[in-house]
């Protein structure tokens, strides 16, 4: 833990990745005078115009990561696809790295991640690992095939139900093959854990996925599950961070199957889409809590401020290109309980995350009614078509 809980210019915090997660982290950091410095490969990244210092560089280049962070007090991430060796070099030179490089290495590789669950008796779906060119049919059908490395935001994950699916769409790269789960609900739990082993667990959320693009389209908080299931989900998420001796903030994605069993699907070692609603819905947001874990500030209260909350991602339309045009935004801004967040991306692409909308209210019926209305009235188009 950092000494004296410094803020201001005497404490230098580096973030690898300058996307929307970094942008919302900076918004939280300002309140505590935590001055965040960012590296991202694009000079058009959302963080580029907001950060205390911006460096354009390759997140997967050992030397670029080291040169960016070598004079900083602490380095963290907003995306896990970064150079682990660069982070290890920083750690060896005395820079604090949160989360730990070895933990990022496990989570970067979905095969290592699944093996970690198995080795630590953490319930997860049955799986096998195949090398590049391996037999995709060896686990039977239907299956979920996931690339071991490089997948992000639904890319690199697909459901294969038939032999033709394998022939037409099967990945040839090294993969995880998972037995398809009869899913009742997809749940998420965000857990923060600091260097002293203190933890903070957010209420369980329920995610709704868009099967076309394999992305979360919306979520509700708290999840529509009974108290006992919610407690079990939080306990299971906590078991993951404890088994890993994790430091930082982790999003744990869970399946609740048709028989009522909870299974860990995947984890992310950072702030996550399933926690965006916490900015308005909880007393302390996931971004605040992540920074508290990184800097060593005591965790905040994560209890709900509202009886119900929901979140809807704003994705680029199927044929959207060019500068973003937010159709229906004026109407959304006039609705009570509706909180838009636009990420400042200069170019829209099909299904690219351009922002999100949080809805808060006195009951879930109010929230779901507003989400449905927003889904029908709000879309992100572009200034030109391809």
**Can you tell me the number of structural domains?**
3
The CATH level-2 architecture of the largest domain is identified as: 2-Layer Sandwich
Low-confidence stretches: none
Instruction: Name the overall outline.
Output: globular
Structural class, please?
alpha+beta
The portion of residues assigned to helices is 25-40%
Count of individual beta strands: 20
Q: How does the major sheet shape up?
A: 9 strands, antiparallel
Strand-residue proportion: 25-35%
CATH topology of the largest domain: D-amino Acid Aminotransferase, Chain A, domain 1
Distance from first to last alpha carbon: 50 Å
Please state the CA-atom Rg, rounded to the nearest Å.
20 Å
Question: What is the CATH top level name of the largest domain?
Answer: Alpha Beta
Tally of alpha and pi helices: 11
CATH superfamily of the largest domain: ATP-grasp fold, B domain
Average residue pLDDT: 94
Describe this structure in words.
The protein is an alpha+beta fold and 386 residues long. It folds into three domains: 3-97, Rossmann fold, CATH 3.40.50; 126-179, ATP-grasp fold, A domain (Dna Ligase, domain 1), CATH 3.30.1490.20; 183-384, 2-Layer Sandwich (D-amino Acid Aminotransferase, Chain A, domain 1), CATH 3.30.470.20. It has helices at 20-31, 62-69, 84-92, 101-108, 110-119, 163-169, 227-244, 278-281, 286-295, 329-333, 364-377; strands at 12-16, 35-40, 53-56, 74-77, 96-97, 127-130, 143-147, 157-160, 175-179, 183-193, 199-201, 205-210, 215-221, 248-257, 262-268, 308-315, 321-327, 338-342, 353-361, 379-384. It is globular, with a radius of gyration of 20 Å. 41% of the residues are buried.
